[in-house]
Specification:
The chain is mainly β. Helices cover 3% and strands 34% of the residues. The chain has a single domain, classed as Methylamine Dehydrogenase, Chain H. The longest helix is centred in the C-terminal third of the chain and has 4 residues. The chain is globular.
């Protein structure tokens, strides 16, 4: 049938009528709490997107709690203090486990000496050979075999156990008499006994302490100068000992006490420079042990090698 052109045609819906679309699905459940789950609170009107068939992003109410793991426990103190280092050593009869922790109190003011930025406590546990560290109990500070209250070190290079496992050497700060290089006995029948104390000049930045391969001497490395820089304009910076090697004498005196000596009495050699050493090491080979050959690395990326000439009592590159 042909209709006139002016007769309106009626459609099921007017062109201006909005079409109602189904609402996006909602998910009333929440993420189950778990120690490894991080539930993030999102606004309730956040749309749900499905970028992958196996991925679902669920809108959560704003009051959904966030599950976090319990804080770690520390066997030393609460709150924890920075741990400087841990180290494993061994003797012929025992395992030795060391932990160094920064002291909370500021370093003491030492008369006529430079104050270090911090001091360190050192604990040692003497354990049987073959000790199972994974399944055994905690190493509690109260059960430590040996403890040093105030030493000067930055890492595990700041103390050393001799190759035979019988001696421990480190630098200690005494409030009355300043800095000392102390050597302790690690033998079970005399554990912790001081064998030798060497008075040192200003050394607040000790970076390394090491026994020679034959345990006849101790090498000390310094990270910064031991005296103040000159104040006069244009003056050259002074040289200072970046390394010092002292003889180790582990004999006790008639009273059974360790020896107390000045650095000049037992010093084999020292190296004066403007370097700042990071670490100093003896050469481990037996042929180099008699010459006390060693090297040290500087903070500006250099490595210097030396050997000791006993005829002139000097270390030469």
């Amino acid at each position: 049938m042909r209709l006139p052109t002016h007769i309106p045609v009626s459609f099921p819906y007017p062109t201006h009528t909005p079409v109602a679309l189904p609402s996006p699905p909602t998910y009333p459940f929440r993420c189950p709490p778990h120690q490894h789950t991080r539930c993030v609170a999102l606004p309730t009107n956040t749309p749900v997107s499905f970028p992958h068939p196996h991925t679902r992003f669920v809108p959560l109410p704003t009051h959904t709690p966030i599950a976090l793991p319990s804080p770690p426990t520390y066997p030393f103190r609460s709150p924890p203090r920075p741990q400087r280092c841990v180290a494993f050593k061994r003797s012929a009869s025992h395992e030795m486990f060391f932990v160094a922790e920064t002291n909370a109190e500021p370093p003491p003011d030492v008369e006529e000496h430079m104050k270090p930025p911090f001091t360190v406590q050192l604990w040692m546990w003497m354990l049987p050979l073959g000790h199972d560290y994974m399944s055994a109990g905690k190493c509690e500070p109260a059960a430590a075999s040996f403890h040093i209250q105030r030493s000067v070190m930055y890492s595990d290079a700041g103390f050393d156990v001799s190759k035979c496992g019988r001696y421990l050497a480190l630098c200690e700060l005494d409030t009355a008499s300043g800095y000392h290089l102390k050597t302790f006995s690690l033998q079970p029948n005399s554990l912790g006994q001081v064998l030798q104390t060497v008075a040192l000049p200003n050394c607040p930045y000790v970076t390394s302490v090491q026994f020679s391969p034959l345990v006849a001497s101790v090498l000390i490395g310094y990270g910064r100068c031991q005296q103040q820089q000159p104040t006069l304009g244009g003056a050259a910076p002074p040289t200072y000992a970046v390394l010092r090697c002292v003889a180790f004498r582990g004999d006790l005196d008639a009273d059974g006490a360790g020896q107390r000596v000045a650095a000049d009495d037992v010093e084999l050699f020292s190296i004066d420079s403007t370097d700042e050493s990071n670490v100093a090491l003896f050469h481990p080979h037996a042929s180099a042990a008699g010459l006390l050959a060693f090297l040290y690395a500087t903070k500006d990326g250099r490595i210097r090698a030396f050997k000791y000439d006993p005829q002139v009592r000097d270390a030469r590159p």
